[in-house]
Fold:
Amino acid sequence: MAKGHWLMKSEPKVYSIEDLERDGEAPWTGVRNYEARNTMRDEMRKGDLVLFYHSSTTPPGVAGIARVSREAYPDFTAFDRDHPYFDPKSNPDAPRWHMVDVEFVERFPAVVTLQALRELEELEDMVLLNRMRLSVQPVRPEEFERIVELGRGTS
Structure:
């Protein structure tokens, strides 16, 4: 089975590629969008590669690569009344929200900015450039490879 390729967004002030590099592995908590949740729950598999995207920063862009290290399981932050991602409608017996774990693979020397991605004709159909608000999204293999080339400075 072919590996999947994804892009996952995080605000660097909340959790950055540097944090993942330091931690080695972490749960991807707090996704509260059904489409993104379904992607993680139904499609992501252990070993899939992830473009780690820094959002809500200047400039936004792809900061590195992670790998799915654990497939979807209930997001425990939804049940914690003291946690910012608490959801009073989520029930441990029928969890509403799920998460995956990711592990650090690589940090790019410089962020591949959203503007740089917009300037590449071969990426014009990329989900990121057409559905900006989606926090977990598929990436075609050729898009993934092109962005990795840019991130490594090998293009």
About this structure: Helices lie at 17-23, 34-43, 114-118, 127-130, 141-152.
